[in-house]
């Protein structure tokens, strides 16, 4: 077997559920996205299954919501990442986002920058990258994805005990 660099280990995460209050700390957002980016494929699948089983109504809502073709995959990935960040930060305090809450928030969700500023910075960077890579991802598509993310993040935040 050829010698080569060992696969990079995901960076360590802070203890699950250790964040106080209801806002994601910037250092936790950074640690979680780096951790997620370094996950081996089987661990990423396991995390996606955990998301689907712990947030069935959010998953169903995402499947039903209208997303632009150019931003749909990014929106789904970003909602999963937002959930992973909230789950790491707040642990067992994070309940299940409800379809009713998601539907009520869908048209006019609170601005992500106001509710979760650290997450908003991360999402903006990811959407900037997508806009640079995909000419079809314009301002209208971005606004649609941002609205879905803001609604999902607000519903998850409202599911905190």
Describe the structure.
Helix content is 64%, strand content 0%. It is globular and about 40 Å long. It is an all-alpha fold and 161 residues long. The chain is built from eight helices and no strands. Helix 1 packs across helix 4.
Kindly summarize this structure in a few lines.
This protein has helices spanning 26-38, 41-54, 56-64, 72-90, 99-105, 112-115, 117-133, 139-158. It is mainly alpha-helical and 161 residues long.
Distance between the termini: 50 Å
Mean pLDDT rating: 92
Helix/strand structural class: mainly alpha
Uncertain stretches of 5 or more adjacent residues: none
Run of helices and strands: HHHHHHHH
How many helices? The count is 8
Number of strands: 0
The share of residues in helices is 55-70%
As a whole number of angstroms, the C-alpha radius of gyration is 16 Å
Largest sheet: none
- What gross morphology would you assign? globular
Q: β content, as a range?
A: under 5%
Key structural traits:
single chain, about 160 residues, mainly alpha, 8 helices, about 0% strand
SSE map:
Blueprint: H1 26-38, H2 41-54, H3 56-64, H4 72-90, H5 99-105, H6 112-115, H7 117-133, H8 139-158
Helix pairs in contact: 1-4, 4-8, 5-8
